[in-house]
Structures are given as structure tokens and as C-alpha cells.
Amino acid sequence: MPIPAPNLYPPFNTIRLSHVCLNVSDLAASTKFYSDILGLQVTDANDTHVYLRAMEERGHHCVILQRSAQPGTVEVMGFKTFDEEDLDRAEAFFQSQNRPTQWVERPYQGRTLLTSDNFGIPLEFYHKMDRLEPIHQKYALYRGVKPLRIDHFNVFSPNVDESVAFYSQFGFRVTEYTEDEESKRLWAAWMHRKGGVHDMAFTNGTGPRMHHLAFWVPTPLNIIDLLDLMSTTGYVGNIERGPGRHGISNAFFLYILDPDGHRTEIYCSDYQTVDPDLEPIKWDLQDPQRQTLWGAPAPESWFQHGTRFVGVDTQDSTIAASPIIAP
Amino acid sequence: MPIPAPNLYPPFNTIRLSHVCLNVSDLAASTKFYSDILGLQVTDANDTHVYLRAMEERGHHCVILQRSAQPGTVEVMGFKTFDEEDLDRAEAFFQSQNRPTQWVERPYQGRTLLTSDNFGIPLEFYHKMDRLEPIHQKYALYRGVKPLRIDHFNVFSPNVDESVAFYSQFGFRVTEYTEDEESKRLWAAWMHRKGGVHDMAFTNGTGPRMHHLAFWVPTPLNIIDLLDLMSTTGYVGNIERGPGRHGISNAFFLYILDPDGHRTEIYCSDYQTVDPDLEPIKWDLQDPQRQTLWGAPAPESWFQHGTRFVGVDTQDSTIAASPIIAP
Amino acid sequence: MPIPAPNLYPPFNTIRLSHVCLNVSDLAASTKFYSDILGLQVTDANDTHVYLRAMEERGHHCVILQRSAQPGTVEVMGFKTFDEEDLDRAEAFFQSQNRPTQWVERPYQGRTLLTSDNFGIPLEFYHKMDRLEPIHQKYALYRGVKPLRIDHFNVFSPNVDESVAFYSQFGFRVTEYTEDEESKRLWAAWMHRKGGVHDMAFTNGTGPRMHHLAFWVPTPLNIIDLLDLMSTTGYVGNIERGPGRHGISNAFFLYILDPDGHRTEIYCSDYQTVDPDLEPIKWDLQDPQRQTLWGAPAPESWFQHGTRFVGVDTQDSTIAASPIIAP
Amino acid sequence: MPIPAPNLYPPFNTIRLSHVCLNVSDLAASTKFYSDILGLQVTDANDTHVYLRAMEERGHHCVILQRSAQPGTVEVMGFKTFDEEDLDRAEAFFQSQNRPTQWVERPYQGRTLLTSDNFGIPLEFYHKMDRLEPIHQKYALYRGVKPLRIDHFNVFSPNVDESVAFYSQFGFRVTEYTEDEESKRLWAAWMHRKGGVHDMAFTNGTGPRMHHLAFWVPTPLNIIDLLDLMSTTGYVGNIERGPGRHGISNAFFLYILDPDGHRTEIYCSDYQTVDPDLEPIKWDLQDPQRQTLWGAPAPESWFQHGTRFVGVDTQDSTIAASPIIAP
């Protein structure tokens, strides 16, 4: 199945990914991980929720830690729309796709539409979020990996072709993709709204499950600093893969796991994709450099482990794993 | 005069700045500067023109060097529109502003509209440009400062309030600005389309003149490499200011001059500005850290020198220079 | 006067510079500067003294802050000898030079010889200092500029030829030097014991006064981090010069002033000088790139300001300042 | 067996490791690897030998490529002595150890003593080598990983205790070591002369064989640049391990293989070890972080593969491999 043409005039305008709500078992342990180690700033905290933002963000939160009886699951992925009316247009779109929709109350957010994608991933859309003072020049606050902003989500999909087709309808555009040369099926795809390589990526596997969320950092040296810090403060076991450079996206990367197993990518070296006529880059599933340009294989866990969306059943992938299994 | 509200639904959709055509005296000397020293890639060259692109760009050119009897002037600044129809909408808009418009032939570009802004800066808009193969992972080609993409233009304006008002009409949004607290006049403003701090910036002074064009590079270490290279290959006199960090934009910067005096900024550490409700950051003209966060003053030349647009008369600024004159 | 040949078999064996004792007015303010901002670790503190070490050092202290009625003066510069007997040999040497010598008690140090050089700079030599646990892999402790070790001293000398001759006698070797082509007098010289560019440097001017002490850091990015931190925590006025690269020594540098005016250099990119037949590199006083490879001039204060050694009279330089005065 | 006390007054004074001669099958292919990819500078070349130096070195060569019928073997490892007389003292020492000695002619070197260590590793000592002009500030010459200097050798030894005892006699000092807690045998040891972590390291295994030679580079970003270059110019298969940080030595590292299988480490983040009373750091063989601070295991080849010294028989290690085999 070929890559669908981008829909340049989508039914509603999504600006970018915005935030994720993660279900965790121990709020203090998770806060320590995301705040002290990773370096996000706490913007609010109570007995059940901790809100955090990255250093250049002015919206109230990009990560919400939620104390839960189902830790290690993802509650919802959030996106920001261009204007208020886009929320109503989004409601109409998801209803037309026979997806459930409802308006929900979210602290620090304006009107928020809760819905889900074709495989049931809970998505919420909002336009207004409380805006905070800039802190990107308060250098005394920087710590950990010095995360600048949330960059993207990556999810396991049991059918990447269908996921790409679904998100293409509302304007997500493919920047790079991996195709199985034999079946001509998509193995993985990277789709964006905000002008970088991706806001949302899909990779073949039992799903839907979150593969990872990602933060953008200034330079590879910040990632090296994080590795040094984690490996000498009791978190060496939370380092899963990297550092390395992906062939796909050309990103310098590191993958780490939080105390409940949610995976985070630390990421730099993205490129700009605002041109509407940007040609997607195609990778062959047989090319091992698409995963790691430098050749080092990813660990098995990286292909198998993900965190489920709370209450959402998963399906096995519809593509049999090829001998060199890889997202 | 307050900052105008951004026009979120502009009459035509400009995606980003795209390229500049610089008039030069010695094509070989300028090519050496932009290609061997700076690190741009030559995509075509003939007796009168040399075309170059940066490492992650797939459009044919971001800089055109044009052999000219009026070296040290700028021929035109180019912008890319979202679609083909935006060109016609742009024509209608500029005509409504009593600006001259004409359709011109440009090698490697599709239909191209030549017009000018309220102070006469020659602008051209196109939608299609020849697309080239990706080279961002051909690491053997990287050299010089490893420029990834053209980032922005900065021009002297005799009336920044009027420049900002003009560009605001077609959707440029202010991200940061400097205000003279006494007169409440704008001293400088940074405006974007593509989701970074700026595509176009205006600074008070005799104008219109180009202050600089800018390239985005991966890390400050690339800028240090360029300084080492220039200072040991006969170009130490072409280093004008930096390295340093601007308060405004938070950019790590270096300013250099080409053989004809055109100024280029090398730039990293931008931030993302896609939110339509992004609040512009205001700086006080009396705050010296807005220019250099670290305190070092800019040299006099940086405030005085610019390169004229060919055939365009300049006007003195309408704001008397304050004691601490500074863009 | 030519550079003296190195004395490869000196009367006693000095391993390296070791520490400095700085007289300060406000122990809390100075501790904040050296510990919180610069990133040294406090190893002991009482009402009158604070001891600090850098991250890879295992000796007890490299900086001693001493509360004093004569703040802004330097108490003494310390050096470590190869063995215990070298102390007695040093005593004999300095006595042979008609320099005063005495054995003094210093906390955390073994037997310590206090003496002074030919212009009266107070020097102390010891062999044993309390050794502390390694902390260079305790990455949670790193902050500020991440200083790894004290690197060198630099002093104003009223007669650099004589200073170089004096230190050459006990084995300091010249790595680079600046000569006034007309008078054939030394303008400045860099001398080492430990195998880097310098342990001690001399520069022409009213002296003896300390020009600066220096710390070695891993990469230029650490220096950029320090600049960002200082300029947003109330220390922008303490930034004096840089960042830049010296022609001499090839060091990437930054100069900052502590609350009492003591100057510190942050330094990286040294080279190895252990070869006994290493040829000193000669620079011409007329070459501005010897100071800053990239061409930017140093501020006037950098040539004029230094901190005196407590109780030591200074003399004017015996070389008339050339038009382009510069150390 | 405990670590022997350092011999601070050795029978002869070795300054540092100096160079290695590698036997290769295809002089052009090896030259391309070491010069174009790695970035060493060719200082002389003929039909049978190519000489190279690193960027801050002023000695004529640090690597000699020798066309050979026994490619993939090492001809000799070279060391520089403090003075000419040290060569005669070295001859006496090695004769006293019943090691063969002879004076050999080496191009560009003065009087050269060829001998071998207790396991037969061919060693040569010289004092004088042709000195070349400094090129460390000729930044246009820098390429590849920007190697600054040869840093150390690492060899497989069938009995590390005996190797350490042998080198200790002539003044090599242990900086870090790994001990098998059960047998109290040394598993690996790092020994230096020049004031860094090592000039020579020993690791348990079939030996003697060269494990690797190493080059010092300025920052981790240079290593990332090399990875990007190698992986896109046909050398992805030559990348063996890394990037990562060793627990031991705290070095940021990368291991690559040349066309004949000789292993090179690219290395930065060393620390200074000139103190004669520096305490060696002990690591437990059971601690996986001693190898990779960040936890990633080394590939099997890294424990097994080495290159033999030409004409020298190897012996199996006298320590049975523990379950977690590792040098």
C-alpha cells in the first residue's frame, strides 16, 4: 500500500502534540525521575497528580503523572489545535469516523475533546492551556538532560498502513517510512504537524501500545550528561538503548525507562519539514542502518516492550515478523 | 505603538523564508567563502551565478551569488508559499497595498512573483522549486560550520513600527521585540512564519538595508570550529562579532562578513513558536543583556553597517538614536 | 635575551602547581561564587577559612578562601614536590638565592616550606596533603562549569626575562613566549612542570601581582553553560573577557572576576608537553592573534587589573608599553 | 597478589609511549583509513611504509603502516626516553632481565634500542625523533575524528600480575585495576608514565596480543562525527563498540577496526595522574559498570579479538574465564 498523499487542507487544524498523562504507582518516585533526573519542572502537584513542563515550554504541562491502580498504563495523549473552532471541527470529524467523543474537564486546559483513534488510542484535543512565564533563560533551573520541549509520541500499531491512513485524514504528513519490500506493507511511519520529523510515529507490533514519548534537548552532550548521572545515581538499569544515531530521522537518541516502565526518548538533531511538498524518505526493512546508522543492534526489549493505554485491548500485528524483526 | 495582534488568517500563506540573491564582485572569491569556508554545497554554477544549498535543504538553492557591477548589494529576498494559489493571492494583496508586482522567470523555480515591501525591499514569492536528493546523511560532504538550513533575514528599517504592521497583515507573527520605553516606539522586532523565532527581523536604522542573513547549525562547537578555520585561513578580518548568546531569541551567535561585506549570522539554540497564542517577549531598550546575555557589547560596525537593496533608496530612521544606540 | 635552556636536572623536583590562598572580604559571598557558581566542592569550612577542591582532584584543596582585613590580595601560591626530600633541597635552593625560607604549619598539609621568588611572590612547597576519596564519577555533584582541576597561575612581572630565568633554575620549562622584536625582551612566557602548557605564566606589567588562576574543564560547552548561569544569576558584571581562543596555548578561554576582584580563567584545549626536547613556540608582540586567535581585542581591564600579593611591594615594568600594549 | 608499589626512582626514565608499527596488507587502503577517515597526517610515504602523526604531535610519527606478508600483526611498540643516556640504562635493565637487546636503525629516529618485555612484546626505545613544525593551529588540516595525540596501548596478557610486576620495575605506575575477588589475581591494569591514566594497559587473555592503540580527541562530539562519517562511507562494519563511557578511566570511548583488524580506541575525558602518591582505583571483576559505566555490554569480539606481535608465540591465560568474562 503506498503512502497516502498528505491532506494539506484537513478538516481541523492540529498544531502539535502537547502532553501525555502517565499512570504511575509511586508519585514520589516518578516525580524524582522526571524532575530530578530528567530535569522537567514541576508546575503543580497534589496527592494524585503531578504536572510538569520542559524548559522552553510556556504551556502549563507536557507530562502529567497520575497515581493509579493501573500503573504502567497511559491515560491519554494530548494535542493542541490552532483555534477554538477546530475543536468542534475535530468533534465532527471523529464522529464521522464512528469514534466516541465527549467534552471533558481538564485542570489548566480550556474546552477539551476526548476521543480515540482507529485502534482506540485515547486522544484529547484542546486549544487553550494556562500559559506560564518563560523560564528558558533561567539557567539556574536547568538540570538533568536539560529538556527543552516534548517532541513526539511513538506507538505500536497492529496495522501501520491503517494508522497512517487514519491520521492522514486530519493532516498528519509522513516524513519517513519503512516498507517491507515483499508485502509492500508499511512497517513503520513518522508523521508530523509542527514542522519537525514527527509528532506521532507508528511501528509494527502488538498494539495499540505506547512505544515512547520523546523530549528534545540541545546537543548530544546533554544526553551524555544524563547517562553519567543516571548510571551513578541508581538508574543504570533504566538505560535501555543508546546513545546512537537513527538512520531514520537522523536523530541522536537515548532510550530510558521510568520506574513504571514508560519509555522516554531523549532526542536531538531533528530537521525542518514545513515544506508541504517535502518528499517522504523511504527505508527498506532489510537495511539495518535505518534503525542505528552506526550499526549497533537494538536490544530485544526495544522491539517487545511498550505500555498499554488504560482500558484499551490490543491486537497482534497483521504482519508476520520478518527474520530481522525490527520496528 | 503596541505590537499588532497576529493575523492568524492571512490573505495568503507564506511557509518560510527561502533564499537570497547577493550581488558580488568576484564570483570565485565569494564561492570560496560560502562553499569552502562556510560549508554550503554548490548546486549549480555558471559564469554569472552560483547556486548553493545547506545540508538538510532539498530545495535547489538558499543562496544565489550573482556577479554584478553593484557588488555589496542585495538583489532580492525569496519566500516559499504553501500552495500555487497563494501566489495569486499574494499578487492581489501587494497590489492592494499599492506595491508593484510582476511575474518573473527564475531558474529552478516555478511561477515567481516579484514585488516589494512598504519600504521597497525586493521580495519574491514562489511555490515550486526544483527538489534535490537528501544529503543530510552524506557526512563526507560536511565541512566548515556544517550549515543545516537558512534560518532568517534581518533588515534595518527606518520605521520598525511600520515594518511590523506591514508584515503582520500577511501573517508574520512577532516573537520578541524591543521597545523604547520613552517613545513607546518599536526599536526592533522578530517575526516568524515557520515556527522558529524568526523568518524576518527588523531593527531601527537607516534603511531598508540588509543587516544579515542567518544559517542554523547543530551546536556551538560548530561555530567554534568555524572561528578556528577562518582565523587560520586568512579570514580573521571577516569575523565581526561573537561568539555570544543573544538575550533576545536566546541564540548562540556569530557574525561574519563575506568578501563584499554581506553579513551572515551563524546561529543555534532557537526555540519552537508554533503556538498561535505564543506571547511575544518584550525587552527594554535600556537592557544591555537583550543584545548579549553575557554582557559584551557589540562593535560599532554592527550597528552601522548593512548592505543596500540594489536600486532602493534608503531613509534615515525616524527615532533619534538613544545614548546607548543599539538594534 | 634569549629563552634560557630548560634545566632538565633541577635541584629539586616540583610536580605541579597545587593551590592558592585568596584573601577575601566576605567568606559567604566568595564561597557562593566558587562553589555554587563555579562548581568547586567545599572540603572544609570554618569561621575564617573555606577549603575547596575540583572534581578530579584527590588532594584536599586547590583553593583556600581566607577571611582577611586585606581582601583582594593573594596570600600564597602552593606547589607539590615529588618527594619529601625535595622540600629540603628546595630550602637549600631558595637560601642559595638569598630568599627567605621558613617551615610553616598548614592544615591538611605535611611539612611545608614558605619562601618567595625573585620578585617576592610568596610560594609554598609541600609533598604531602590529605588525600580524599575520588568524586570524579559522582556526577550528581557536578555543577557550574564542572571544574576538573586547577591548571595554572599567571602573574604580572616587572621583568619577565628575570622571572623566566629564576624559575628555569628549578626546572620550569618554557612552552610558548612573546618577544618584543625591537628590544628582544620577553613580554610574556608560559612555563610548565606537569606536562601541560603551563603551571606558571608571566606577563609584563606592574608586579608582582596575580593576573589569574585557572581551572581546566572538559569542553567549551561547559564554559558556555557557565556564561549562561552567571549572566542570569546576578554575575553578568563578573564576566570580563571571552569566550575565545588564545593563539598562545590554543586554549579556549573565559575570564571572570570573583567578588574581591581575583581573576579566574576557565580553560580547555591544552596540549601535552612532556617531551624534554619540546620546542618553545615564539610569538611576535605585534601579532594580535597571539592573544585572541579570532581577533577580538581584550578589554583594557585585562591588561591593567591584577591582585597584589599581601605585603609585597610592586614595581613598574622595565619595558615601556608598546603602542599595542598587551600581555 | 597485591599491586606492586610504584618504583619512583626507576633504572631509566621513559617519558611516554610514542608510536606503533602495524603490518598491513594494502598500504593504500590502510592509509585511507588512518588518514582520510581517522584524520592523521601523512608525514612520509614510500612503497613499503607510510608514516603518520596526530595534530598536536611534533615528533615525526606515531603510527607506521608497513606493507607486510604477515598483515594483521604488530611489528613493534615504541617509547621515548627522557635523555640519551636512558637508552644505555634501558639496555642494561633489559639485559639484567635476560631479555634480548639490539641497536636498530629506524628512519627519523636517533639511536634506537630494540628489546622485548617478559612475554615477548617487541618494544623499542629512542630519545631523538625528527621534530616537525607545529600544525595544531592549522585548522584547515583537521578532518575525521581530529586526533590530537596517540594516548596509549592496551595488550592481552596471559598473566597480568606478571606484566604489571615487570613494567613496575622501570617506573610504570598503576592508576586503576580490576581484581578477581576470589583468586586475588589481577584481571586488568592501567599503567602510566606521562601523567594520564595510561601509556600501557594489560587485560587478561591469550597473549601477548595487541588489544588496541588509542588516540586522544578533544570532545565526545568528535567521536560522534567519526561515527557519522564511517557509517556513511562504507566503514559501518569497522565500528565495533561504543560510543560509551568506561567506568575504569572514566573515558568516553569508541572502538573501531582497521582494514587488517587492528583495533583503535578513540578516547577523551582522561584525568591527570602526575602525583607520585596517587592512589590506584580498584574495581571488582563482578562490577559490570567498570567496563561500561552506562551498563551496555561489550560485544563478544571485544573480549576475544586481538592482533598478534609478529613472530611472537601466545599463551593461554592462567586465569579461567569467570562466568562474566570481561577484560
Principal-axes shape call of chain A: globular
Q: Tell me the helix content of chain A.
A: 10-25%
The CATH H-level superfamily of the largest domain in chain A is 2,3-Dihydroxybiphenyl 1,2-Dioxygenase, domain 1
Number of strands of chain A: 18
Order of helices and strands of chain A: EHEEEEHEEEEHEEEEHEEEEHE
CATH topology annotation of the largest domain in chain A:
2,3-Dihydroxybiphenyl 1,2-Dioxygenase, domain 1
Class by alpha and beta content of chain A: alpha+beta
List the total number of helices of chain A. Answer: 5
Strand residue percentage of chain A: 25-35%
pLDDT average of chain A, as an integer?
96
Q: Quick one: biggest sheet of chain A?
A: 10 strands, mixed
CA-to-CA gap between the ends of chain A? 18 Å
Give the tally of structural domains of chain A: 2
Q: What quaternary form is this?
A: homotetramer
| CATH architecture classification of the largest domain in chain A | Roll
Rg over alpha carbons of chain A: 19 Å
Low-confidence stretches of chain A: 323-327
CATH class of the largest domain in chain A: Alpha Beta
Largest interface: A-B, 35 and 35 residues
Cofactor (chains A, B, C, D): Fe(2+)
Protein name (chains A, B, C, D): Homoprotocatechuate 2,3-dioxygenase
Keywords (chains A, B, C, D): Aromatic hydrocarbons catabolism, Dioxygenase, Iron, Metal-binding, Oxidoreductase
Family (chains A, B, C, D): Belongs to the extradiol ring-cleavage dioxygenase family.
